[in-house]
Design a protein that fits this description.
Layout: H1 2-17, E1 31-35, E2 44-50, E3 56-61, E4 77-83, E5 86-92, E6 98-104, E7 110-121, E8 124-140, E9 143-154, E10 159-164, E11 170-171, E12 179-180
Antiparallel strand pairs: 1-2, 2-3, 3-4, 5-6, 6-7, 7-8, 8-9, 8-12, 9-10, 10-11
Length: 195
C-alpha cells in the first residue's frame, strides 16, 4: 500500500518539477515592476525575461510584498512567448493594470510599437487593451512607400479606433471582448491593427 501511494504521487512530483521558474541568478530580468495587479492591497510583481533575439516571457507573482524576490519561488502566472518583439517597458497604468510595451525596429525605417494592457478580473489575467503604432518605409518602383498609423483597442469597453496615413482616428466596427492572457497571441490582434 505504501509503495502504491508513492508511485501514485510520482506523476505529481514530476509535474511540479517542470513548472517554470525563471533563472534570476544567471540572468537579470529584462524588466521588473511592483504593482497591485489584483487590487487586494498587497504588492505583486511582474517580471519580463527575454534573451537577445528571443521571445519575451512574462511572470507574475502575487503578494510578494516589498521583499527581494526569492529565485526558488514559483510564479502565480506565466505567459511564455508573450511577444517576439523586444520589450522596452513595463508600466503600471492605474486600477491594477500592467502595460507591456514592445517594439520591432525601434525607430528604424521599418518599426512598430505594441502595448498590451493586462488586468486581473474575477480571478483571471485578461488582455484589457491593445495598441499598436507603425511607421513602415519600403522601397517601391517609384521611390519609397511609407505607411504610418495606429490602432487602440479597449477590450474592457468593447471599443477601438484606428488611423492610417495621418488621418484622424475612426471607430472600428464591431465589439471587442477581453481575451484571457493565457490565450493571447499576435494572431488574436484585430485585423484593423495590421497594415
Amino acid at each position: 500500500m505504501r509503495t502504491a501511494l508513492h508511485l501514485a504521487a510520482l506523476p505529481w512530483l514530476v509535474a511540479l518539477a517542470v513548472l517554470p521558474v525563471p533563472a534570476f541568478a544567471e540572468n537579470s530580468p529584462a524588466f521588473e515592476l511592483k504593482l497591485d495587479i489584483d487590487q487586494n492591497g498587497k504588492m505583486d510583481r511582474a517580471v519580463a525575461m527575454q534573451e537577445p533575439g528571443g521571445p519575451a516571457d512574462l511572470y507574475i507573482y502575487l503578494a510578494v510584498g516589498e521583499d527581494k524576490l526569492d529565485p526558488s519561488r514559483r510564479p502565480d502566472f506565466v505567459k511564455k512567448g508573450l511577444t517576439e518583439d523586444r520589450v522596452i517597458d513595463l508600466e503600471s497604468k492605474g486600477k491594477g493594470s500592467l502595460a507591456v510595451t514592445s517594439c520591432f525596429g525601434c525607430g528604424a525605417s521599418k518599426s512598430t510599437e505594441d502595448t498590451l494592457t493586462i488586468v486581473y478580473r474575477r480571478g483571471q489575467f485578461l488582455v484589457g487593451g491593445y495598441s499598436r503604432s507603425w511607421d513602415w518605409n519600403q522601397q517601391a518602383s517609384n521611390g519609397v512607400e511609407t505607411k504610418v498609423g495606429e490602432c487602440d483597442i479597449n477590450y474592457l469597453t468593447g471599443r477601438g479606433t484606428v488611423s492610417k496615413d495621418l488621418e484622424a482616428g475612426t471607430p472600428i466596427k464591431g465589439k471587442f471582448k477581453p481575451v484571457p492572457l493565457k490565450d493571447w497571441s499576435t494572431g488574436r490582434r484585430p485585423k484593423a491593427c495590421n497594415f
